[in-house]
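Two proteins were folded this term; both appear here.
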Amino acid sequence: MKMLLATLEFPPDNGGVARYLGIVAKENADIIVMSPSSEHELEFGRGWFTWTPLLRRIPQLLRQTKADTLLISHVLPMGYPAIVARLLGYRVVILCHGLDILQPRNNWWKRLLVGCVLRVATRVIANSEATALTVRSYGIPEKKISVVHPPLSWDAATVRGSVQAVAQLPAMAEDKRVILFVNRFVARKGGDVAIAAMKIVKKYFPNVLLVCIGDGPERNAWQAAAHDVGVSENVSFLGRCTDEVVRQWLRAASVVIYPSKDIPGDPEGYGMGAADAGLFAKPVIASRIGGLPEAVIDNETGVLVAPNDAEALARAIIALCEDTERAKALGNAGKARADRWTHEAFRSAFFSAVEKS
């Protein structure tokens, strides 16, 4: 089976979808990648119908490369050439991540188009059961849907092979109880909830340090919030960091948090960063929302709390900081789970799903 992967996000982009697809295509000569940064660059036009060049370019590349399967990561705008490819007899596999299929439901035309694309596809791969539920809401039969959880950001072998000496832990972490938040700085990710929780946690653990890694439009607002609630000295914004720096902070953390908010029309499809904590045997506190309960198993690899609730988040942080044995047990269970979900295991599950198309 030879495949053409058409996507708007791919390495060197650094988001979750880009990492996911980079791992899918890694060292696989049977996958040709068409992305803004690849050899086969995506071509867009101007005006209202910027996607029209794709109607010609994608079928053309399918013929040139002798691919028999089209993998589409962004149902819009890639859905248009996907329909053409299916009419030409190619297999079409749609990868769904959450927001990409939920947001179009707010627009009748986009909802109609997404439903059409999903129906003509030969296979739909959802990143979680929560996302699969949204796929089914378009009338897609269960037999056409496969659920494959995203891979971890790094393979266990990569983590074991990187420098892990105590001397590599960040100096800022010395004598601190580190609570780690690694995410995009957008409203849905709940950085403001984490900062509000610090006001409560600080009363019990004055040496608490919330380390925020990432960037985005909410950064200034969150920094202002930390000042307003009096926790500026307990919150550090590091901006975007290299993978090695992120791994150093994961080693230094006492708890990893993923406090996503419940915002209508803006779902949390899975939560790769929450699952990554398992590689470092760290317990996770996450919101009980979207696909997060599949990334974090409640009372097994972490603790789930109500979304938008700073007090509940604070109570969970305090409980794990006080009960270090429980925190260690949750972290170890997360590590056992992460060690099983290797990149090889992920690719095996992914391509088994593709072969069902």
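Next, the second protein.
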Amino acid sequence: MRGLWRTIIREGDNVLLIGLAMLVILVVSGLVVAYVAFPHRDKEMPHAPWLGDAMNKATDAMPTLDEDEGTDPKR
């Protein structure tokens, strides 16, 4: 009987980890959708302007390729 309870507890831990992973995935995908819908198009976020400002600061800090750097006609 003890082995059965240990198995149930371990399966419960797996379900908890899967649930947390799914929650993280949903949060990240929501942030991507919010970025594409508003700050990427230079518009203010309606209910969370602080989030749009934070996203703009983060994208300004990331290194990007200029048009001249991205195209290499020799390749």
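The mean pLDDT is 76. Residues 2-37 form the longest helix (36 residues). These notes refer to the second protein only.
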